[in-house]
What does this fold into?
Amino acid sequence: MTYSLELRKKVIVNDIEHDFSALKRARMYAPSHKSLDEIIRDYCIA
It folds into this structure.
């Protein structure tokens, strides 16, 4: 089964929005001394 280009684009955008939302929440609840690089690294490992 092949999916249309438009559907694949929507899936990619949805994935990016999900990741951004999760990173935003992680940043809000992270200790103030934790860098954005550390938060992203922790998110990518999890």
The mean pLDDT is 91.
